[in-house]
């Protein structure tokens, strides 16, 4: 059922604070101008949360003006890159997050959060330094979103990808479907986002989603080597190339992001979304009725 | 008919197929671009030509930038000795790059389809030229890359942007940011090339495809090229101007000079990001 709160709910994504005592995302500084952004919640398969977004983007705010860093590796601790959105965060589960005193206000609140997500993630995707992402194990939902914020993707041969949102009634919120269409063509983006089906490293390479596939043991070495190669090139030329390609790839993106934020927010007042979550929790097949 | 426009490029027209041959072997700056544009103008206004083929006469399509020639030995920077400040250098380079972009656009926007027949190295400006064509056929010995970043030079004439549209942003960044070179098989797999043939069969394969397209209805063929180009090229004009400005700034960098000196001496450049 749709949660309709009588009191004004706390809808500020910044209010989700990390009480675990260790950062969900950390920055490691390596030699030769390569820094590593590390997702650091292996016990939860690096499940994504507003806390992770807040920490990741704060790190990128700093990296943007850091003259020592020439290239970035983004990677995860543990056996999975990111198994998807954290459906049981410390605060704000899906019901609490999408509240309002009426469906119209719920849509408005969801829209503002989605728009905030787009704004903050842009500091990652438009970081002046190139980002190489190393992906192992599960890379589902939010994992695909985060991987698409990087410039170049390297996968371990055990990587498993999916955009499963549609299978539980959730729309794609952060632009992964649009970014996938720019990377791999609209047909591949539609196929993967509309079915929610899983695909492996070989298919990911085949459609151009990842640029390299290596054995799991070689993943970090390959990502560091590529980042090192880029860091050894002329920084101004490197950043010039990235900014020009991004300006081209992201033409019209701001308008489309605003549309996706609004369009996806409508789904959060549907009954099917809560049926999807309930079915997933009970490990049964959902019955979607289209409203 | 054989017309020698300039020594850099030769235009031959046989029946419905025009062949533009780059005679300048090895490395380039933008010398062949103006000659290519002049050939393209002749082809565009020739009602008998239905398809154009771009090829190189030598072993390689293009071995990349002549980085040493890019850097003016007097001023120590590109832009020429008349430029009086970094801003003046940037302005001169910006206008030079806009002209080179316009030259490549003449070829890209030919009403007739353009087939690039690529043998050997196809690097830097060569790959920019190849991406301006509609269809690319590569010999099995062909290699592709944007090596500029390794000597301080970004991509200048939209080759990376066209690569994004053809292949995806991840691969465009992989090639341009790492400066790695890839072989024909990988270029075929990711979609830079539409066909790979043995080197000895390259000219014949290009001629066969050109003949097939020339045999189709010209009005339909031109309409298809126009529509696909209109869609894939939306916003390209603005993005090219942004690329010219962004790249011009790098041309006056100390790092490009370091890259050029290292290229001349065979040493390793030390890049300080300035």
What are its keywords?
heterodimer; A: 291 residues; alpha/beta; 6-stranded mixed sheet; 3-stranded mixed sheet; 9 strands; B: 274 residues; 7-stranded mixed sheet; globular
- Overall structural domain count of chain B: 1
N- to C-terminal distance of chain B: 51 Å
Strand order of the largest sheet of chain A: 1-2-3-4-6-9
Using CB atoms under 8 Å apart, which protein chain pair has the greatest interface?
A-B, 37 and 48 residues
Percent helix range of chain B: 40-55%
Task: Return the structural class of chain A.
Answer: alpha/beta
CATH superfamily of chain B: 2-enoyl-CoA Hydratase, Chain A, domain 1
Count of distinct structural domains of chain A: 1
Q: Which strands sit side by side, in order, in the main sheet of chain B?
A: 1-2-3-4-6-8-11
SSE arrangement of chain B, N to C: EEEHEEHHEEHEEHHEHEHHHH
State the secondary-structure class of chain B. Answer: alpha/beta
Strand content of chain B: 15-25%
Task: Just give the CATH class of chain B.
Answer: Alpha Beta
| Topology of chain A as a string of helices (H) and strands (E) | EEHEHHEEHEEHHEHEHHHH
Helicity range of chain A: 40-55%
Shape of chain B: globular
Oligomer: heterodimer
- Give the count of helical stretches of chain A: 11
């Amino acid at each position: 059922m749709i949660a309709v709160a009588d009191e004004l709910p706390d809808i500020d994504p910044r209010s989700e604070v990390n009480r675990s005592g260790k950062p969900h995302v950390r920055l490691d500084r390596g030699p030769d101008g390569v820094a590593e952004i590390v997702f650091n919640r292996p016990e939860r398969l690096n499940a994504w949360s507003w806390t992770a977004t807040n920490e990741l983007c704060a790190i990128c705010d700093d990296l943007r003006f850091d003259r020592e860093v020439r290239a970035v590796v983004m990677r995860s601790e543990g056996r999975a890159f990111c198994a998807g959105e954290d459906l049981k965060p410390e605060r704000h589960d899906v019901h609490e997050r999408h509240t309002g005193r009426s469906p119209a206000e719920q849509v408005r609140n969801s829209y503002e959060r989605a728009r905030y997500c787009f704004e903050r993630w842009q500091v990652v995707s438009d970081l002046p330094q190139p980002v190489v992402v190393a992906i192992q194990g599960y890379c589902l939902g939010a994992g695909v979103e985060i991987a698409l914020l990087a410039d170049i993707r390297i996968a371990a041969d055990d990587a498993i990808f999916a955009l499963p949102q549609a299978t539980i009634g959730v729309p794609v919120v952060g632009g992964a479907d649009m970014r996938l269409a720019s990377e791999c063509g609209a047909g591949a983006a539609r196929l993967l986002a509309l079915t929610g089906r899983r695909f492996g490293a070989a298919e990911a390479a085949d459609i151009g989603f990842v640029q390299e596939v290596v054995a799991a043991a070689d993943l970090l070495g390959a990502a560091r080597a590529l980042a090192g190669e880029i860091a050894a090139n002329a920084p101004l030329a490197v950043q010039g190339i990235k900014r020009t390609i991004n300006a081209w790839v992201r033409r019209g993106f701001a308008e489309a992001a605003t549309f996706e934020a609004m369009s996806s927010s409508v789904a959060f007042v549907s009954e099917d979304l809560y049926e999807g979550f309930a079915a997933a929790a009970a490990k049964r097949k959902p019955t979607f009725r289209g409203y | 008919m054989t017309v020698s426009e300039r020594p850099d490029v030769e235009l031959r027209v046989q029946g419905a197929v025009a062949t533009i041959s780059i005679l300048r072997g090895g490395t380039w700056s933008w010398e062949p671009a103006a000659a290519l544009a002049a050939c393209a103008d002749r082809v565009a206004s020739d009602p008998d030509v239905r398809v154009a083929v771009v090829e190189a006469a030598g072993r390689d399509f293009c071995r990349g930038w002549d980085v040493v020639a890019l850097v003016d030995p007097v001023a120590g920077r590109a832009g020429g000795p008349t430029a009086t400040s970094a801003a003046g250098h940037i302005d001169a380079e910006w206008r030079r790059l806009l002209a080179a972009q316009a030259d490549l656009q003449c070829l890209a926007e030919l009403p007739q389809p353009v087939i690039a027949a690529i043998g050997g190295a196809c690097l830097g400006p060569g790959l920019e030229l190849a991406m301006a064509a509609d269809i690319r056929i590569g010999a099995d010995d062909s290699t592709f890359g944007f090596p500029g970043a390794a000597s301080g030079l970004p991509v200048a004439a939209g080759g990376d942007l066209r690569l994004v549209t053809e292949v995806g942003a991840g691969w465009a960044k992989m090639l341009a940011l790492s400066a790695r070179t890839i072989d024909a098989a990988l270029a075929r797999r990711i979609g830079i090339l539409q066909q790979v043939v043995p080197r000895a069969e390259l000219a014949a394969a290009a001629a066969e495809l050109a003949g097939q397209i020339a045999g189709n209805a010209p009005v339909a063929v031109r309409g298809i090229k126009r529509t696909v180009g209109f869609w894939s090229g939306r916003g390209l004009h603005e993005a090219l101007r942004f690329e010219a400005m962004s790249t011009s700034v790098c041309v006056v960098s100390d790092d490009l000079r370091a890259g050029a000196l290292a290229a001349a001496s065979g040493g390793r450049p030390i890049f300080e990001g300035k």
